[in-house]
Specification:
Layout lengths: L1 E5 L2 E6 L4 H5 L1 H15 L6 H8 L4 E2 L19 E2 L13 H10 L8 H5 L28 H9 L6 E4 L6 H14 L4 E5 L2 H13 L6 E4 L6 H17 L5 H28 L9 H14 L9 H4 L4 H11 L3 H7 L16 H25 L10 H16 L3 H10 L14 H18 L7 H6 L4 H15 L10 H16 L8 H28 L13 H24 L3 H10 L1 H28 L8 H12 L6 H8 L4 H10 L5 H10 L3 H5 L6 H24 L7 H28 L9 H7 L10 H8 L4 H4 L2 E4 L1 H7 L7 E7 L6 H10 E8 L30 H18 L4 H8 L2 E3 L10 H10 L12 H7 L2 E5 L10 H14 L10 E5 L2 H17 L1 H11 L2 E2 L2 E2 L3 E4 L8 E11 L18 H9 L2 E10 L2 H4 L12 H16 L3 H12 L16 H12 L4 E5 L6 E7 L4 E8 L10 H15 L2 E5 L1 H6 L1 H15 L2 H4 L1
Parallel strand pairs: 3-4, 5-10, 5-11, 6-8, 6-9, 7-8, 9-10, 12-18, 13-16, 13-17, 17-18, 21-22
Antiparallel strand pairs: 1-2, 14-15, 19-20, 20-21
Length: 1276
């Protein structure tokens, strides 16, 4: 039984559970009731305690006295001695053990313990968090991208394991997680095994003003008044002061500004580096290739090609290039595009065939020219067969030359009558007229010519009806008169009328004249129709029409007409018999001269016919060479007496390209449509191409095609992404504005942390007053205060709690999900059983640690054996689902207890993320070995130095002590270590680095400490410095000198770490491979801890023969055992100290090879024409530089060395880098730059776009910076 009392206040009474096995259950419960009664009192004295115990047994004394050695008691008697035992021991576990027993009966559902028991689905790696809106980000402490990712990933319900290698800012990440939790109104429990780790986190919280929202408890009793009083004061201020809200609107405005600026910068960065789906290149890569082409490009521009290749991808472009380039030398002289030779057939390009074609073609052109010359004279017609024409001219030509004009005149008038009508079966009109006239002659012959008299000249003028009337009357009078005739009035009247007519005509009006009249009338009636027909025919034949008074001489007229018609008929037949009678008719009717012209035309037609015939004969052999269309066109032109095609002239003009053309055209069917189109567009630049040597055409064409393709790709990408054309000055302004806004938002987040207390969730001041009393009977113990304050809003007021696992179990109520998040720091130092109660109190677990560092010590502790006495009697009040989860949790309890520490458990149940930025080391060589051997080169290290500087500074200094290892110590090494420290302390106090001494066993540490005291006793100056360094505090942190063995240095860091490797050959010169904990399982983790403690330098004092430590180096193997790693590190340190950088790099590559997850980060020279061009300019300035300095996040394309300081003073990055951690502008443009400038003060970014478009301007900018930064000697 243990009582703890201070200032008469009972702080703690602990009844050991082991007594139950001694006393029995009944007696034990009686003891427990007495103790519980004592605990209910607010204050106790020793006397009161001993009085209360009299109910349980005999009290030997009422006052404190020595612990009795011999006491006379009877068997079974209980005695109480009032004695005190004073001791200092790190005692943990009983409260935890009790809670572990209680947890057997509780369901872990909806707690982090449920995750630890694997009752939830498990994923190995944390999801990459989506970028939250700016108002949902709550960062106040400076943070790198991997830390921010961890903070955002910690929001996931699955929990998170944060692997934080040395110097990566685990504590800083936890502070940001705390801020994130406060911003989202979440509660957080931070649990650390060691007080120092808790204090580091709390100091960082306090530095951000978060101590007002946090509670750290190291001692449940000593911290009571401090905690309760701070809450009283906070509540008093909160209830009396108005809530500040002015920051809310301002934060929204700044967040909106950040979102806009970051989106614009990210859009530019994404457009610069995103791979174009068509060309499989980013804009940055494309510009680099264009810069490379331009470097030696001396060809002409050919924009006409761009439309052809604009839709090609690189493979298609290469195919097109390989398709066309070998043919350019044949294509160029072929003049293939729009060549008239296309109208020729494809035929062999051998010399014989070409000569054959040229012979026939030239001859054809000659005769064609003669034919065309003949066509120049006028020709009214052409003939296809001259023979009929010639025969006709021979037989009839002279006749027409001698034809009389009268006949010509008649032909003019009458020839149409001799032409057939459309109805060829009908008789000619001329024949009808002749027949008609012949009939008229016959009718005239039948007339009684004697009947013609003078009256006939008058009768012919009468109208037909009058004539007919007179004829009827006269007939009546000449007919025999009947006997009664004298009585006929009609006869009388007729006679009178006839006599009157005769009188009127000047004839004798007597009866004797009437017969004469009658005969004249009859003659007129018979003659009149004949005369009228003759008159009509004369009119038709365009002859003089005979008068009506014409007598029978008309017969002569008719006879003449018939004779004339018959004569014209003969001439008409001659004309109609002539070939091309129309022209003959026309010329004959016109004149003799016209007919002579016709004969001349015939002769000309005969000549053209002969020329056509000759041309057709000359064309015939070309049927095998001309395309059908051209052949047909030429043939038609000849046959139609037309001018031959101009194509013949064009073909003749390019005849010297025939050989190349015929060769190339045979290759054309194998060409793609795009290749043919490309050649068509390339023809625009024939003059430029002709200037190139034939042997250079292939190469030049490839250059030209690649250049134009990349130009059109560049134009298209710029059109699709106009942001790429953003001016560099505008981008810089955006970056500066973003940096300012980022500072503002972090300050506003800090204000938010202090002022976003949900007052509505807090109870009234009166209710708080009751539980915040510091003294008096109603004063609460701290555990009571927490239990009663939680429903009053204590967790809302102070959402952040920091304590060790034991304080958690002793102080906080065992309530499932009491905190939204429970964070474990330095989890590799925490046994699993210590963490289980805290896991139960959190909904989500965040575990932080480094598996490559030391596990928890097993000395003086034993695990609670949960696997024993598992209580499988489930609570009947639980649902079936809850019972199943409890049962599963109990079965998994044994498995989780098999894990050596919480970190190992977390690796199997939580998704993992890693912190990837190493800040501690001032020289990357200090962390390179650990990075390669233990962290797969995943750490990004901002610092870098020239090799000469490394050689001079010796960040790792190897000192061969060659001491003797005896009685587990190495005195010579110990003295060397003290001497090394003494020399370092010769510096002034302002420049004096902090120092830690690490040995490989405890006895060596004790020996070195002893020698320190001995030297201090002998050297007052040394003693003074030793005292100062033992009390040294930097920035509120203990930086005093320490001398520790390798087991105890985790969590420490100093400027310089001095190692004593301790082991060596014994006095007989024998070296044994026994290295204590460093040679045992997990020894490499202890080594990793030790060698990563230094910020600026490691001094390695050693007596260990490196070659004898292990067989790894001699066998050229990769390290697998702890001593392999030890040997490799010592060899690395020695090589680096001696400036053997090649060997040190080889050792690093060897230890990297031990990982199956090797990340290739060799600093090989990347092929990049943009970098090559910039490098060439840097070389021209004559400065010392290194290409591709560093790697990963902090890679720089060039680092320029200042010869005065021997440090890199200028860093050059050719465009912003690509890295998963640099996706967003703040990480890329602000955080990265700020970290880099600690290593290299001047960072210049050169835009590939600007270098391509305005190279001279960019060169001037770079040169100006170099001249400004470097020393005058160099700039000159």
């Amino acid at each position: 039984m243990c009582f703890k009392e201070f200032n008469r206040i009972l702080l703690y009474i602990d009844l050991k559970t082991a007594l139950e096995g001694i006393l029995g259950k009944t007696l034990y419960e009686g003891w427990q009731s007495v103790i519980d009664e004592l605990l209910s009192r607010s204050a106790l004295t020793t006397l009161e305690v001993m009085d209360a115990l009299t109910a349980l047994g005999r009290v030997l004394s009422q006052q404190v006295q020595n612990l009795p050695i011999n006491v006379d008691t009877e068997r079974g008697e209980v005695c109480f001695a009032c004695s005190a035992v004073l001791f200092d021991v790190n005692f943990l576990g009983q409260s935890i053990g009790e809670e572990l027993n209680r947890l057997k009966k509780l369901s872990p559902v909806n707690t982090a313990l449920e995750t630890a028991l694997r009752l939830k689905p498990y994923q190995a790696f944390a999801d990459i968090p989506e970028k939250p809106v700016e108002l949902d980000r709550y960062f106040s402490v400076a943070s790198d991208p991997s830390q921010e990712n961890a903070v955002l990933q910690a929001r996931q319900e699955s929990g998170l394991l944060i692997e934080g290698p040395p110097g990566t800012g685990k504590s800083q990440t936890i502070v940001n997680m705390v801020g994130d939790a406060i911003g989202r109104n979440k509660t957080v429990l931070i649990v650390c095994q060691k007080k120092a780790a808790l204090e580091v986190v709390y100091k960082r919280l306090a530095a951000e003003g978060l101590d007002a929202r946090s509670i750290m408890i190291n001692d449940i009793n000593a911290d009571r008044n401090t905690v309760i009083n701070s809450i009283r004061e906070q509540l008093d201020l909160l209830f009396k002061s108005p809530k500040r809200t002015d920051w809310i609107e301002k934060r929204k405005q700044v967040a909106a500004k950040i979102t806009d600026l970051e989106n614009r910068l990210d859009s530019y960065h994404e457009a610069l580096h995103q791979q174009d789906p068509q060309i499989w290149l980013s804009y940055r890569e494309l510009i680099a290739e264009l810069i490379g082409i331009n470097k030696d490009y001396q060809l002409f521009a050919a924009p006409q090609l761009r439309s052809v290749v604009s839709d090609c991808n690189p493979q298609q472009l290469m195919d097109l290039e390989n398709e066309c380039a070998p043919l350019v030398r044949f294509w160029l002289p072929a003049c293939y595009e729009n060549s008239p030779l296309v109208h020729l057939k494809a035929f062999s390009h051998d010399l014989a065939t070409l000569e054959d074609f040229k012979k026939f073609f030239t001859y054809f052109l000659t005769v064609e020219q003669l034919r065309i010359d003949k066509l120049s004279s006028r020709a009214r017609f052409e003939i296809d067969n001259p023979k009929p024409y010639q025969q006709w001219i021979e037989t009839e030509g002279n006749h027409f030359l001698t034809i009389s004009e009268s006949i010509r005149s008649r032909l003019v008038k009458w020839l149409p009558l001799f032409k057939p009508n459309a109805d060829t079966s009908a008789e000619l009109e001329s024949d009808l007229l002749i027949n008609q006239l012949t009939l008229l002659q016959e009718r005239l012959a039948l007339l009684n010519e004697s009947s013609w008299c003078d009256l006939s000249l008058k009768l012919c003028l009468l109208e037909s009806d009058v004539l007919n009337d007179l004829s009827d009357k006269a007939r009546l009078m000449v007919m025999p008169k009947p006997w009664y005739g004298f009585l006929s009035i009609k006869r009388y009247k007729t006679k009178r009328a006839l006599l009157a007519f005769l009188a009127l005509q000047g004839e004798l009006p007597n009866l004797e004249s009437i017969p004469k009249l009658y005969n004249a009338l009859v003659f007129e009636q018979e003659y009149r129709p004949i005369r009228q027909e003759i008159q009509a025919i004369c009119a038709k034949l365009q002859l003089p029409v005979p008068d009506n008074r014409t007598n029978l001489n008309i017969k002569n007229i008719v006879s003449e007409i018939v004779t004339g018609l018959q004569e014209v008929k003969k001439w008409a037949e001659r004309i109609m018999a002539a070939p091309h009678c129309e022209e003959v008719e026309k010329s004959v009717l016109q004149s003799k001269v016209a007919f002579e012209h016709l004969l001349n035309d015939y002769n000309a037609a005969f000549e053209r016919y002969e020329s056509r015939k000759t041309s057709l004969e000359a064309l015939l052999p070309l049927v095998n060479y001309f395309e059908d269309t051209l052949y047909g066109y030429c043939k038609t032109a000849i046959e139609k007496n037309e001018v031959s095609s101009l194509l013949l002239i064009e073909i003749n003009r390019v005849l010297d390209t025939l050989e190349a053309y015929q060769y190339f055209r045979k290759r054309v069917p194998q060409l793609s449509a795009k290749a043919i189109k490309l050649f068509e567009r390339l023809r625009f630049y024939q003059e430029d191409l002709n200037c190139l040597p034939v042997t250079e055409l292939d190469k030049s064409f490839r250059q030209l095609l690649n250049y134009e393709a990349k130009q059109t790709w560049k134009t298209r990408i710029e059109q699709d992404n106009p942001v790429l054309l953003t001016n560099a000055d505008e981008i810089q302004q955006q970056i500066e504005s973003l940096a300012t806004a980022d500072e503002e938002i972090r300050e506003l987040n800090n204000i938010l942390f202090r002022h976003n207390i949900p007052v509505d969730k807090l109870a009234s001041a009166r209710e708080w007053e009751d539980i915040t009393r510091l003294t008096g009977q109603r004063a609460r113990r701290l555990r009571e205060f927490v239990e009663q304050g939680e429903p009053l809003g204590l967790m809302s007021l102070r959402p952040i709690w920091l304590m060790n696992p034991d304080i958690v179990s002793r102080l906080l109520p065992l309530k499932a999900g009491l905190f939204d998040v429970v964070i474990f720091d330095e989890a590799s130092q925490m046994p699993v059983e210590y963490a289980i109660p805290s896991l139960y109190r959190g909904k989500v677990a965040i575990v932080s640690g480094d598996e490559k560092q030391m596990p928890p010590s097993s000395f003086f502790s034993a695990q609670v054996e949960l696997e024993e006495d598992l209580d499988l009697n489930l609570n009947t009040e639980l649902t079936d689902e809850e019972q199943q989860e409890v049962l599963q949790g109990q079965w998994n309890s044994k498995e989780i207890m098999d894990c050596p520490d919480l970190l190992q458990l977390a690796r199997s149940v939580l998704p993992t993320t890693s912190l990837q930025i190493h800040y501690r080391s001032a020289y990357r060589e200090l962390i390179d070995f650990s990075n390669a051997a233990f962290y797969m080169n995943q750490l990004n290290i901002p610092v870098r130095h020239p090799l000469n500087t490394i050689k001079q500074a010796q960040p790792i200094e190897y000192i061969w002590a060659n001491g003797v290892y005896e009685q587990q110590t190495n005195p010579k090494e110990a003295n060397t270590v003290v001497q090394v420290v003494s020399e370092i302390w010769q510096q002034s106090s302002s420049k004096r680095p902090s120092i830690g001494v690490v040995t490989f066993n405890k006895k060596q540490a004790d020996l070195i400490e002893k020698i320190f005291y001995e030297k201090a006793a002998q050297d007052k100056t040394f003693a003074t410095i030793y005292k100062e360094e033992n009390q040294r505090v930097d920035n509120g942190e203990d930086m005093s000198i320490f001398i520790k063995n390798v087991e105890n240095v985790q969590g420490d860091e100093r400027d310089i770490i001095v190692f004593s490797t301790t082991f060596g050959c014994n006095e007989k010169g024998i070296f044994r491979r026994n290295f204590g904990v460093l040679g045992q399982q997990g020894g490499e983790r202890r080594l990793n801890v030790a060698i990563t403690r230094a910020r600026k330098k490691v001094v390695l004092v050693s007596s260990m023969p490196i070659d004898d430590i292990s067989d790894m180096l001699s066998g050229k193997q990769i390290p697998t055992t702890p001593r392999d790693y030890l040997q490799c590190y010592l060899a690395y340190a020695k090589a680096l100290s001696e400036g053997d950088f090649e060997y040190s790099k080889d050792l690093l590559n060897r230890v990297v090879g031990n990982s199956q997850f090797v990340i290739e980060r060799a600093e090989t020279k990347r092929q990049d024409a943009f970098l090559d061009d910039v490098e060439a300019f840097i070389q021209s300035m004559g400065v010392g530089y290194k290409r591709q300095s560093g790697n990963g996040v902090f890679a720089l394309d060039f680092a320029i060395e200042d010869p005065a300081t021997k440090l890199y003073s200028i860093g050059i990055e050719c465009d912003a880098p690509i890295n998963p951690l640099l996706t967003h502008a703040r990480s890329r443009e602000i955080w990265r730059q700020s970290v880099l400038k600690h290593a290299i003060p001047n960072i210049l970014r050169i835009s590939s776009h600007n270098w391509y478009e305005n190279k001279e301007q960019e060169k001037k900018r770079l040169k100006t910076l170099v001249e400004t930064v470097l020393t005058p000697e160099v700039s000159q």
